[in-house]
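FAQ: What does a multi-protein file look like?

Like this. Sequence, then tokens, then the next protein.
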Amino acid sequence: MNFSKLILGIYAALFVAVTLWAGSFFVQMHRDYVTLKAQETANQRRLTEAEARLQAQEKYPLDQLRHDPVLVERIHPPEARLTPRPRNLCFALRIEKK
């Protein structure tokens, strides 16, 4: 009879230990889940802001910037000298691969 009580006590202690381990495991997983959800929300906000900045940058298409020196002068200060001057020569070289 004492042997069966000992086995029952061991099973009860094992059950309590496994239950405590599982509880701590799931609590840690919940903490990780909450942290990852917060990171996802922050990343989603940053992505939305980056997409808004990209939309603002696409306001001036590349062709318009290439062919409209007045726009370039308005966006960038004239002392930056980003627009071609009449005295400057610009060469566009195309390299063909063989």
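And here is the next protein:
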Amino acid sequence: MKSILIPVALFLVSSTAFADAPIKLKLTLKTPADTRSYDLALVEKTCGKSEEKVAAHNDSVKVCAHEMDQNNVRLDVEWNSKHQAGENVGNTSVVVAKGATAMVSSTSAFRLDVSVQ
């Protein structure tokens, strides 16, 4: 009986660890002045935030990740970016395939893309 329980216990531990593998994201903000990139690594059903405050700009992007299936991730994104061309604030949800990039927001002076690696 113990020999059967040990492999089952090991399987449960290893499958749980595999399910918690990080979802790696690259956030890219483009303005007329420059392009900035931020990296985040999240596990399922968690949120992360990237902030940068310097004289030329003030960026804040929060992302929550929810795996839809083995190939797709739903990202809930909130952003606030102040830069020389103005200020962009918003939030949205987008489903992105692993290995793909989605445009989250785009105006004449601002663009936010999210890549799932």
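Q: Is there any per-entry metadata?
A: Some entries carry free-text notes. For the entry above: Confidence is low (pLDDT under 50) at residues 1-18.
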